[in-house]
Amino acid sequence: MFKTKVKELLEAGLTERQDLFLIDFSINTENNIKVIIDGDQGVLVEDCIQISRAIEHNLDREEEDFSLEVMSAGASSPLVHKRQYNKNKNRTLKVKTASKEIEGTLTQATEETITLEWKAREPKPVGKGKVTVKKEAVIPFEDIIEAKVMIKF
């Protein structure tokens, strides 16, 4: 009952903000509510406050004792929502599939796949030495076990 009401309030708050989307939502047995959101243009503290208010201002603390935590998805958190890929175009991702691990620049994200590009040094086709070649991999979402943005400093 309480969880259903909180979920409805959360969904209403996100409906008002089409640029934000839900990454994770949980309520434990002590009514500790935890909401993790992300946004097409990132998430500001004000965005977290707005979603928090959408939930908190519509619950009665006299009826239910609860705590509420609304946060943005961390920079080192794996990508879990397709919309996160579009937001991270032109950034370096490390993507794990069942057969391999690829690190490359995310150049495209469609409804079904992502495209990564990277440069590799390979032996010249003729003669000695190596040459730099551009590589590309198109990876279906269902093959992705984990994808993380690689933070470069």
Please tell me about this protein's structure.
The protein has 153 residues and is α+β, with helices and mostly antiparallel strands. It has two domains: 2-72, GMP Synthetase, Chain A, domain 3 (2-Layer Sandwich), CATH 3.30.300; 82-149, SH3 type barrels (Roll), CATH 2.30.30. The protein is built from three helices and eight strands. The chain has helices spanning 2-16, 45-56, 82-87, and strands at residues 20-27, 32-39, 67-72, 92-96, 101-109, 113-123, 130-140, 146-149. The strands form two sheets. The protein has a five-stranded antiparallel beta sheet with strand order 7-6-5-4-8. β4 and β5 (101-109) form a beta hairpin. α1 crosses α2 (45-56). The longest helix has 15 residues, at 2-16. It starts with a helix and ends with a strand.
Major β-sheet annotation: 5 strands, antiparallel
Strand content: 35-45%
Distance between the termini: 46 Å
Whole-angstrom Rg: 21 Å
Name the strands of the widest sheet in spatial order.
7-6-5-4-8
| Mean of residue pLDDT values | 93
The residue fraction in helices comes out at 10-25%
Molecular shape = elongated
Q: Sketch the topology as an H/E string, one letter per element.
A: HEEHEHEEEEE
Residue runs with pLDDT of under 50 for 5 or more positions: none
What is the CATH C level class of the largest domain, in words? Alpha Beta
The tally of beta strands, per DSSP, is 8
Keywords: Cytoplasm, Ribosome biogenesis
Subcellular location: Cytoplasm
Pfam family, one: RimP_N
Function: Required for maturation of 30S ribosomal subunits.
